[in-house]
Request: fold
Amino acid sequence: MTHSTTRSIVRSISFGSLALLITASAVRAQDERQDERQAEPVRLESGVEQGGAAAAEKPKDFVMPHVLNSSHIAIPWLGAGLEHEIELPKWQPIHIGPITLDLSPTKHVVMLWFSAVLCLIVLVAAGRGAEKARAEGRPAAGLAGGIEAMILYLRNDILLPNLGHHGEKFVPFCLTGFFMILFANLLGLVPYMATATGNLSVTATLAVLSFIMIEVAGMRALGKGYINTVIYWPHDLPIAVKAPISLIMTPVEILSKFTKPFALAMRLFANMTAGHIAVLSLIGMIFTFAQLLNYSPASWGAALIPVSLATAIMALEVFVAFLQAFIFMLLTAVFIGQIRESHH
Reply:
């Protein structure tokens, strides 16, 4: 594979990720505009002491606000909590008949913008570096060499064998999804950032785009034979057997088309959300131990246990970020290859 081909793939990935971002930002499978509840102290009755009612404050939830979407983002701040919340602008909703579209930015949408910008910067820089190395008659090194090696491995050893004959045209789409998901996953591990792929709206959008690409690839490859992927009709059986089998298997064939993108969306969403909840829960145990032991030296010694576990899970989350991006790309390529080769 020549450097010019690698550069064209990198450019396709970079600008494709921007298109993917715009589509994902517009889909809202849940109320993206819901604010994180600024918990007013909730008083709980705990009995009567010396004729007066004793009350206790409900502890503030710090786990779910970091996982759920919201209409504001946090930035580093030298003050209480070491962060400051910035309210995101609210745009006028768009009314199309009975449909109302609220495209106002949310925390996860901003994270998607960051992911797209990082894709453009990193991949365009890698493409230019590869082109410069080619002009100088030497192999690419550094960032350009690493990105080129990754793309060549994914293209030659993973994607093309699964996409089938003449599958080169689908490589940019698959790599676009890989890098977009990868950057979104990794951003969630950075302090003050959020995991956009932990939002079902985003993963559902990615799955819908994959579904469209899979079905369009099947239509183009099979032509009129595409109907056989919808209606099950065994040609080598007598009509008395074909009819009942077709009635039973056709709904199964149709259902299988939708279970694939559903599995893609749920797998990515569940894995990215579960890991962050586990990390935040372990971090919360640090302060729980500190309070139980009245912030004594023993409390910080006991806190080393959740600190060690949280560090191990964070390291695992880096691996999971790459793994989930890879699995999404791989399964998309497998599904495209299956439907393109189904006439065999």
Q: What stands out?
A: The chain has a mean pLDDT of 80.
